[in-house]
Write a structure and sequence with these properties.
The complex is a heterodimer of chains A (about 325) and B (about 425). By secondary structure, chain A is mainly α. Chain A contains 15 helices and no strands. By secondary structure, chain B is α/β, with parallel strands linked by helices. Chain B starts with a helix and ends with a helix. Classes of the chains: A mainly alpha (about 325), B alpha/beta (about 425).
Chain lengths: ~325, ~425
């Protein structure tokens, strides 16, 4: 290895035989070449996606933010920088706070409901029900349905007609003489959005169930056995041994359901169309951009949506990274 | 060897992805064709459009007709697609839009060519009512060719429900309407006034405003900066609130079809909806004058609150010559008399041939009224008098009113919307 470095003159002489120069290249150059060979293909392979992601996700986020900070309120305007004016102005409208309020009610009920129901179903299946695969498929099936299709069916189920003209679920209540349960569902001004969350819960609790079931199954049987030997009740086994191990699963479920909930659009459109009583930020953004044609205001709403989703996603990313580091990965 | 193969493959893949991501196919404007964009993809609208296309192809055998219709209720999808095409300077040769202020954004953006020369050439100033041309003009120029007229202020009612309630004939004023609604409520099980989702309430509002304020004051509302904070407006809105008190609880979950069907099925006494409801009643097999009947909405007799589908000539239309022959066809008496009986509307031209409409009792009466020189008022909800922004502001105000039932806030929001324009 040391030979080439001790004979530098041989290469610069130019007249010498090529033989001695080759090892010199072979040691440094070839090592570099080997290294390049090892990472270049993978770099080339991922670079298109990095490029496209950079341009069409982060580039677009940047562009959207720039638009939100401008006063380009018509597509034909030039638009100049106005700082956070649009972000402030939105809160002075009557429509925006109501839409935000609706989104919050929807999210709380949807995330809470899907989590609780999913957990319960997962627990029941974990306890060993006969024909478990059938139930698993059955509960998971709604996930295969689009929100639009779910919405069309639930629009009918949740028809707010009063007792004398009841259809859908209200008719069912009337049938069983449960008239007091007949209600206006999603058309109620205050808590209508809680009813709007029901189809979403129906659709996604099966998915949460699958997550929890995997979590339950991931807890080693020895741990449960040990707890039982120590005299723990079956409930105690779940509460003290299994549940603490499910924190990551719960967190994933909250993130996934939570961010879906904040950007909900298709379900609302399928059930209520564009009506203020069921207005949410995503629907507001759509009508601002495509009907009113106000780019700056639309971009502002989009920015708020991004921030809201980030509130869910970023802590999760930080938490995962920390965890991976602490586990030495 | 193996690693070199990999790097070549990866590089090629990368290049292919980048190329496919960036390359865009250019549209070739060379051949002899005409592309017409609309949202007429179903029912009578599609039938009417197809009849026009057939006529066009007969008269212009060398030109290929490209029907670029985009499906979606009242054009919301189509408008988003159109916006994208206009912004990327890839306009169709002609596109359909509601005549009037709804096209204002496009005009201001410089997407449309003025058609004043075309109007002169085709004698459209003589064929169309003066007030109509005036109401579709923007800064003294016309930018679209109206192919039909729909009426927005129609009161549909069920004669047998009215009989049961002891109301003789349709109410002619808003006061009579409220008495009739009260009678229906007291005497029958029917819903007095059927409405549907929020937009149908906007539709009801415009008819109540017209009926309460009168045609002249209604038309004056749409001047920029108009005063909506008047005692007359407060009174009109109070009437609107009274009418709303007789609507059904579940209206938000229904669209205009369900509200109209309630009338022809005898579940409701009244419904105020545009005259496309007549086509829907036909589809349902309802019998005119028996299952349903019509009148001008209360207080608006003698006034035609209109909306119109029209075709435009975009700037940079790839085949402008062919687009002009298309516009000639849709503007012609022959074209309009072919299209409208199928679509279920009446022609914008006053010289239409009534025989074409004699099969349909509603159209026959509507055409007779149109040709008897009524006063004209533009429908705000259907984009004649206001641009999208103002319209959206009104819709939001109405939606908030439906939620909190605060009439003063509604009045204030409507006034504000008129000021910001």
């Amino acid at each position: 290895m040391s030979e080439p470095t001790t004979r530098p003159g041989a290469a610069s002489g130019g007249t010498g035989p090529p033989r001695p120069t080759r090892p010199r290249h072979g040691s440094r150059g070839a090592r570099l070449l080997t290294r390049v060979r090892s990472w270049l293909p993978s770099l080339l392979l991922v670079s298109p996606s990095i490029l496209l992601l950079g341009l069409f996700v982060y580039g677009m986020i940047g562009w959207n933010t720039r638009l939100a900070l401008s006063d380009q309120h018509r597509p034909i305007d030039e638009g100049s920088f106005v700082g956070l004016d649009n972000f402030v102005a939105l809160w002075q409208e009557a429509r925006w706070p109501a839409a935000v309020n609706n989104a919050i009610v929807f999210t709380v009920v949807f995330v809470g409901g899907a989590l609780l129901l999913g957990w319960l179903l997962g627990l029941l299946l974990d306890k060993g029900i006969r024909g478990e695969p059938v139930f698993r498929t059955l509960f998971l099936a709604p996930m295969a349905v689009s929100f639009i299709a779910t919405g069309v069916v639930w629009r009918w189920l949740m028809n707010p007609a009063p007792v004398e003209r009841a259809t859908g679920l209200n008719a069912l209540f009337v049938q069983f003489n449960l008239d007091f349960l007949v209600n206006t569902w999603w058309t109620a001004p205050d808590f209508g959005m809680a009813a709007m969350a029901l189809p979403a819960i129906w659709q996604l609790s099966g998915y949460v169930m699958a997550l929890f079931l995997a979590g339950f199954r991931g807890v080693p049987e020895e741990l449960r056995e040990a707890a039982r030997v120590d005299g723990c009740s079956e409930w105690g086994v779940y509460w003290h041994v299994v549940m603490p191990q499910l924190r990551p699963v719960t967190l994933s479920a909250v993130i996934i359901i939570g961010h879906m909930s904040l950007k909900v659009f298709d379900l609302i459109i399928a059930i209520a169309g564009q009506q203020i009583v069921a207005d949410v930020p995503a629907v507001y953004m759509w009508s601002t951009v495509f009907e009113v044609r106000d780019p700056a205001k639309g971009a502002t709403i989009a920015s708020y949506l991004l921030v809201a989703v980030a509130v869910f996603v970023i802590p999760y990313l930080v938490w995962t990274m920390r965890k991976e580091r602490s586990e030495g990965r | 060897m193996r690693s070199r193969w990999w790097s070549v493959a990866a590089g090629a893949l990368g290049l292919a992805l980048v190329a496919s991501g960036c390359g865009g196919g250019g549209r070739d404007g060379g051949e002899s064709q005409v592309e017409v964009f609309s949202w007429w993809t179903g029912g009578g609208e599609e039938a009417g459009l197809n009849a026009l296309i057939e006529m066009y192809e007969d008269q212009n055998p060398d030109v290929e007709f490209v029907n670029a219709a985009v499906a979606g209720g009242s054009g919301t999808n189509a408008q988003a697609v159109l916006e994208g095409r206009l912004q990327s300077q890839d306009p169709p040769d002609s596109f359909q839009g509601h005549a009037g202020a709804e096209l204002q954004d496009y005009i201001e953006a410089g997407y449309l060519q003025p058609l004043d020369d075309f109007f002169d050439e085709q004698g459209l100033h003589e064929a169309l009512p003066d007030q109509l041309v005036e109401q579709i003009s923007y800064e003294g120029s016309v930018y679209s060719v109206p192919v039909n007229i729909h009426r927005s202020n129609v009161l549909w009612y069920n004669p047998s429900v009215l009989e049961e309630a002891g109301v003789d004939g349709p109410p002619e004023t808003l006061d009579e309407l409220i008495d009739a609604l009260e009678a229906v409520e007291a005497e029958t099980d029917a819903i007095p006034m059927a409405v549907g989702a929020q937009w149908t309430v906007d539709h009801l509002l415009e008819s109540v405003l017209l009926g309460s304020l009168g045609t002249e004051a209604y038309n004056a509302l749409w001047e920029p900066g108009a005063d909506w904070d008047t005692p007359e407006m407060a009174e009109a809105l109070a009437t609107f609130e009274e009418v709303m008190a007789y609507t059904q609880e579940e209206s938000a979950a229904e669209d205009w079809q369900e509200a109209a069907r309630r009338v022809s099925d005898g579940e409701a006494a009244f419904n105020i909806m545009g005259d496309w409801a007549a086509g829907y009643f036909d589809e349902l097999g309802a019998i005119p004058e028996e299952d349903y009947a019509w009148a001008a909405s209360p207080g608006t007799e003698g006034t035609y609150m209109w909306l119109s589908d029209s075709f435009t000539l975009p700037v940079g239309a790839p085949h402008e010559e062919h687009a002009r022959t298309w516009l000639e066809l849709v503007a012609s008496q022959e074209g309009q008399d072919t299209f409208n009986p199928l679509k279920g509307s009446i022609p914008a031209r006053e010289d239409a041939e009534p025989a074409h409409y004699a099969d349909n009792p509603y159209l026959e009466s509507a055409l007779a009224e149109w040709q008897s020189d009524p006063q004209l008022a533009g429908s705000f909800w259907h984009g004649v008098t206001v641009g999208n922004r103002w319209k959206n502001d009104i819709d939001t105000a109405v939606g908030l009113y439906l939620q909190n039932e605060d009439l003063d806030a509604l009045n204030e929001a409507l006034h504000q919307a008129a000021q910001t324009e």
